[in-house]
Amino acid sequence: LYPTGGLEVFSNLTDTPVRGSIIINDRYFAVGGSRFYEVDSAGTKTSFGLLLNDSKLVSMAGGTTQILIASAGACYVFDITSNTFTALVGGTFLGQISQVGYIDGFFIALLKNSNQFQWSSLLDATVWDPLDTQKVSVFTGNVLSMMIDNREIWFWGERQTQVYYDSGSLSVFDIVPGGFIEAGIFAPNSPVRLDNSILWLGGDERGAGVVWRAQGYTPQRVSNHAI
């Protein structure tokens, strides 16, 4: 491994394990166990609040002044300017939330065990109109995962994928023409951005366990049979 550098402890969170982290405006935030922390450049940690903890990964999305966190189906908002941490009440959403994102000033929340998503008021993750919602109906079954990349929302099902965008229409979000993909997802937390593209662990009607890379809206297999 020479000359690879070693590792040293930078900061110890009181509550563990780390279930997610995000960098916004050069500030680093992390969820450790049941707590939402900020860690500064000296490694000093500050706890801002408690979250529900299901021992699974959290989903976080950052806007210009807010961070939206989804943990164990519940959502929380951290205001970067006032350093306030707020739990959103259950009636805010139409159900439990699995993943969140941010696009064009809107926070997006994917409802668990459904094909439905909601979006917030513009630039405000604390306000959610129950009418600001839509269902992904271009494929059957639930939406298992979501990612926002290049101002587009990717919604993965078990065997298919559909891409949406902010069209500015009355429905706000519409499908991208030609953005339907005959490949789904196998691991909901696997999508990553890399080299101006998206990679994910998925499959199709022939089986699962394939690593796909999006070439435009065409999936290209990048894993071999051994992997």
If you had to describe this structure to a student in words, what would you say it looks like?
This protein is mostly beta strands. Helix content is 0%, strand content 51%. It has no helices and 21 strands. It has strands at 18-24, 27-32, 35-39, 45-50, 59-62, 66-71, 74-79, 84-87, 97-103, 106-111, 116-119, 133-135, 145-149, 152-156, 161-166, 173-181, 184-185, 192-194, 197-204, 207-215, 218-221. The strands form 5 sheets. Strands 17, 18, 19, 20 and 21 form a 5-stranded antiparallel β-sheet that branches. The protein has a 4-stranded antiparallel β-sheet with strand order 1-2-3-4, with no helix packed on it. A 4-stranded antiparallel β-sheet has the order 5-6-7-8, with no helix packed on it. Strand 14 (152-156) and strand 15 (161-166) form a beta hairpin.
Helical fraction? under 10%
What's the number of extended β-strand segments?
A: 21
- Uncertain runs are none
What's the number of helices?
Answer: 0
- The ordered string of helix (H) and strand (E) elements is EEEEEEEEEEEEEEEEEEEEE
Structural class of the helices, strands and pairings? Answer: mainly beta
Assign an overall shape. Answer: globular
Using only C-alpha atoms, the radius of gyration works out to: 18 Å
The proportion of residues in beta strands is over 45%
Q: State the end-to-end distance.
A: 24 Å
Mean pLDDT: 95
Largest sheet: 5 strands, antiparallel
